[in-house]
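Researcher: Next entry: Protein LST8 homolog (Agaricus bisporus var. burnettii).
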Amino acid sequence: MPAFSHPQKMNTPRQDMSVILVTGSYDHEIRFWEAWSGICSRTIARSGESGQVNRLAISPDKRLLAAAIHKKVNIYEIASTANEPLVTFEGHTMNVTAVSFHNEGKWLVTGSEDGSIRIWDLRSSSLHRIYDNGAPVNDVVIHPNQGELISCDQAGSIKQWDLSDNICSHELTPAADVPIRSVTLASDGSCLVAGNNNGRCYVWRINDEHTGLPRFQAVTRFQAHNKYLTRCLLSPDARYLATCSADTTVKIWAILGNYEFKLEKTLMGHQRWVWDCAFSADSAYLVTASSDHTARLWEMSSGETVRQYNGHHKAAVCCALHDGAG
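Model: Predicted structure:
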């Protein structure tokens, strides 16, 4: 049973690792939260260290937290109380905008405004590979098969990178020169959704290359928001799409047959831009981070806020949640 069904078990990350909830902010702080009580159980206050926290990712085994901080990535031990990272990956020359763990925790992928995608070996703490994307990278996700990456960029392109052949094998440009802000993949690798700066979402079916059909088959597009879209994310059960926006809302789209997306509910409560979101493992809850300095935990069934996390002194721009099996 998913950990979120047992609020009585939710203590601090050091006492109980069933739920890891983390937020990052322009106040240079990373905060760990007790999901149900709303209490901040640990703060990584990077005093004297410059650079805002851009993105967060939790390793599949719940042991490590990767924090993209300006031009570098700090790797922290979640069970520790230390402010110092275990290791720091440096080499990007501009903001790191994306970070994601391999499902066995062997490597980490990052994307940056410097136009590069980098793969870091967590076992040797070294840089393994660099891809030249040719334009500032806004997001990178790892395909569930762990053999491909999907990136999106400021030039309006979506690219598939084949890790075995070390090449860009496919490129999509749904709207020329309109930056693609965010990409998300279904957990079974069957569907890709991308959201752009104009608030529009594009959907592709991903076909097995052995079927003879195009690898990416465009199936629909729709206007999710009338303002800047910051994040789109498919739920683990692939039944919903969450979209975050500068319009202060999060919209939840039900995914019907034939890849039809229907607006199910609009989550309202944040006072400023909503930058990031993360689903619980059972797709029943959603965490969001906003420029209003707060994060919120939403119940998907009711669309209501069940907890608000207060403590950041500037915009909360990223969040990470891991309540599944470690």
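Model: Note for the record: Confidence is low (pLDDT under 50) at residues 6-15.
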